[in-house]
Amino acid sequence: MLNPWAAIPAAPPFVLPMDSAYIAAANAACEPYAPGWLHTGRMPEPRSGRRDAPVLVLQINPSYDPTTMREALSATAVAEQRAALADEYAPHACLARGDPWWLRAFAQPVAQFGRARVAQAVCSLEYFPYPSRRFSHAHWRLRSQDYQFSLVCDALARGALIVVTRGLSLWLGAVPELAVELGRTVLLSRNPQRVSISPGNLPGGGYERVLAAIESAGTHAS
Q: What is the DSSP secondary-structure string of 183-197?
């Protein structure tokens, strides 16, 4: 599937035209800035990282910082985030720029390989791409979600290592082929409340397999 996110607007609301009616309907029943409200002043995060990365991390939805939720994104941030959405072979933007949440999640691999190499080897996908502080949109199916689902199918076909951190049932409903590879190329994190790529959260040798995949990947150090 062609990347629809190259067409994300350059000014808010940051919503794809194909999704606009659904997002408007979802937000019509929710107070602005409430936990389930979709923040269209923040950039969606359907994918971060190279689409051909050897490690794929499946999550449920992006969030946003409540302390700055009423502030507008700077022009620089908008330009950088739009460029990262459009470029399917850019490194993982959050890891590359040192986002604290992502550095905590990948603390051990980063300590071993460095941030630049991990950013080149990891791609994360969000089941629902638009940010909210609490995920309450499992009943919505957006046209743009087919893009994330197609990247999962591609990853399965090329034998990439897939780590499901949250929302296994939703991902299985969207991409049933994942079930065939559970325990093989599809790994489940132990604690969905705390995303951590670590030995304790990826038991049974899963963490070592992630390290091997990162080690085998090429790097473009920055």
A: TTTEEE-S-TTS---
Which tokens go with 163?
Answer: 């780590």
How far apart CA 153 and CA 182 sit, in angstroms, is 14
Residue the block writes with tokens 């939720």 = 69
In the chain, domain spans: 8-216
Q: How many helices (H) and strands (E) does the chain have?
A: 9, 5
- C-alpha torsion 55→178→150→43, nearest 10: -60
Is the four-CA dihedral 38, 65, 138, 12 of positive or negative sign? positive
pLDDT of residue 218: 65
Which pLDDT does position 219 carry in this prediction? 45
What's residue 217's pLDDT? Answer: 84
Q: Which residues of the chain have a pLDDT value below 70?
A: 218-222
**Total residues found in the chain within this entry:** 222
Q: What letters, b where the CB count within 10 A reaches 16 and e where it falls short, cover 69-78?
A: eeeebeeeeb
In sequence order, the 6+-apart residues with CB closer than 8 A to the CB of 205 are none
Q: Rounded to an integer, what distance in angstroms lies between the CA atom of residue 94 and that of residue 97?
A: 5
